[in-house]
DNA sequence: TTGTAAGCGTTATCAG
DNA sequence: CTGATAACGCTTACAA
């Protein structure tokens, strides 16, 4: 059996309260006794039982994280940020993988609550009504990642998707592209797909380029659908000079479709992405893309949680981090 | 305040033990009372406090996982397996990211123990003496991933690296390659790099191909070093007809070096990898590689832990899962 | 079948 | 400054 506070107290000839005091520095203890207790603790190799501690303090030092898929670079890197900052503040991460399924997500949300986690970082592809209902009455801090949560009172950390898409589209236009396809994601209001779309159309309009609906495709963050969309464009003889995919995976899918059909990137068609996952610089040609500060997104998310736990209320609901356009080799200049 | 077992007992007009019995099915309870209690539980929305439960049961329902880096496909996918099976058995995952640093790993190992986790899945790039000392005296189940643990008494789940490398080398030879470079990893005894090396040399010897040390490079799982190794080969005019990299990332690094220097894969040089990470089929040309059952590795690892927790001793120490050679487009036949 | 009461290892309150 | 002692919410002998 592990050694408990009692063992220490007995061996040091003091009461357990005294031991508790020295391990917590909570109340003054005479130096002599403190030393004695410390020595016994050392000898016995005593470590306080965090479970017992949690029970009385009603704190678990646990933060729950729900993600749709761990083996995804964006999510993994965000998790790195969460984990590192969490550990700095002595919080552990309880990991839940929802596979993006509503039912799982709801289940985990209540599971985490029942596990007494002190906060939840919740990442989902689609923020549904059911989520919102739950989130609105939950009494522990929750923060979301890259969702538009302005209608519910949940903080969210993200980048300026509108601005980023606007910037990227302008970049393309400045390179002489006029026929620019958009493979986008997140049609829902909670997602930033709509903001990206607005950024794209705004840039186009400002340059008097007409919006061609046949060049706007819906994707799902993954390669396959983007691949198929491009194959379709090829079949329809409706290839643009540039493709803007709002996720790097989709951009890769687009490039693969092009390459597999004998086109060259960027010589025949330019392709740009969004996120700057590791892969973006590993693929050939290296992908021009929008860099999201992924690690920082995770770090900021958990910082918000910790602040809320400490009772420091933040009134902001959207935490917007800076992005950056990373110019690499997948876009060709037409001018 | 959350509702407790007492509240339920009071409202249902029974003792707390009775409530405990119905929620645990531990002892017979008359049907009438059971219904009554269940109803109250429902009404009050009661969920047992797992912290209190852990305290008395001395079980946390927590399994600690230490990995060197979350944003890595292999690790993420393994984690998917761990998480999914863990949840099936009602275990939660406490995630620790060590960045592969010895000190962090040691810290987490004891942290997890003090957190009363019931088992630990420990993944590291290098299994050092310090780890072994710790692991030898720890009294909770630990399992490792892809390490050769035959000298300590810790189970490890892996594939047959010797066989896989042998198979791949033979594949290359059968395609007519004779000048085959090896970019390998894990020189230590705990790692399977040595086994892979043996598989490679065995195949070569069996075909009377002399081993050319100038074609054997040490890598570190990452792209950069492999990239540099290949650049060096190019500079030295010592390019083989095929490169076997023992990680897909390194294979990509090798291909990038080739492509960036004007060579074509596989037309000029063939490249094959190891692991079959997602990227392997996303890159162009698609990478021929050895597929490790990554998800299953995680799943098996946690199953072993759970079995050990239940006291079902396993005497095996190496759990070898099947691998598969996946033939794609990065290798050309010379015959 | 049900209830009483003794823990589990801490922290916190209140006397001394 | 120090020590009893009552919680925290739950499980589990032991009694009834």
Automatic annotation (TrEMBL), chains A, B:
Keywords: DNA-binding, Transcription, Transcription regulation. SUPFAM superfamilies: lambda repressor-like DNA-binding domains, Periplasmic binding protein-like I. InterPro entries: HTH_LacI, Lambda_DNA-bd_dom_sf, Peripla_BP/Lac1_sug-bd_dom, Peripla_BP_I. Pfam families: LacI, Peripla_BP_1. One of its GO terms (molecular function) is transcription cis-regulatory region binding. CDD domains: HTH_LacI (cd01392), PBP1_CcpA-like (cd19975). Residues 3-57 form the HTH lacI-type domain. The keyword Membrane does not apply. It comes from the Bacteria. SMART domains: HTH_LACI. PANTHER family: HTH-TYPE TRANSCRIPTIONAL REGULATOR EBGR, LACI-RELATED TRANSCRIPTIONAL REPRESSOR. This is Transcriptional regulator, LacI family. The lineage of its organism: Bacteria, Bacillati, Bacillota, Clostridia, Peptostreptococcales.
């Amino acid at each position: 059996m592990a050694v408990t506070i009692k063992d220490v107290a007995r061996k040091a000839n003091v009461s357990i309260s005294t031991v508790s005091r020295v391990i917590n520095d909570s109340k003054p203890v005479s130096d002599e006794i403190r030393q004695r207790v410390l020595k016994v603790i050392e000898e016995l190799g005593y470590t306080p039982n965090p479970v017992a501690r949690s029970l009385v303090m009603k704190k678990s030092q646990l933060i729950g994280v729900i993600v749709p898929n761990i083996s995804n670079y964006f999510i993994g890197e965000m998790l790195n940020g969460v984990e590192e900052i969490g550990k700095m503040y002595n919080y552990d991460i309880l990991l839940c993988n929802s596979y993006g399924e509503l039912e799982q997500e709801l289940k985990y949300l209540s599971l985490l609550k029942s596990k007494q986690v002190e906060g939840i970082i919740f990442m989902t592809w689609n923020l549904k009504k059911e989520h919102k209902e739950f989130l609105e009455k939950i009494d522990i801090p929750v923060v979301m990642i890259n969702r538009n949560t302005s209608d519910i009172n949940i903080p969210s950390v993200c980048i300026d998707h509108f601005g980023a898409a606007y910037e990227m589209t302008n970049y393309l236009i400045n390179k002489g592209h006029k026929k620019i396809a958009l493979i986008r994601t997140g049609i829902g209001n909670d997602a930033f797909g709509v903001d990206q779309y607005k950024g794209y159309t705004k840039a186009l309009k400002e340059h008097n380029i007409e919006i061609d609906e046949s060049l706007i495709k819906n994707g799902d963050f993954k390669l396959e659908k983007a691949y198929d969309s491009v194959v379709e464009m090829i079949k329809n003889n409706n290839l643009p000079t540039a493709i803007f995919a709002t996720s790097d995976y989709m951009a890769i899918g687009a490039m693969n479709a092009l390459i597999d059909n004998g086109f060259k990137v960027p010589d025949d068609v330019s392709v740009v992405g969004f996120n700057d996952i590791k892969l973006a610089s590993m693929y050939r040609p290296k992908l021009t893309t929008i860099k999201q500060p992924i690690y920082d997104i995770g770090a900021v998310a958990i910082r918000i949680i910790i602040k809320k736990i400490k009772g420091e209320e933040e009134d902001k609901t959207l935490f917007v981090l800076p992005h950056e356009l990373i110019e690499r080799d997948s876009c060709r200049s037409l001018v």
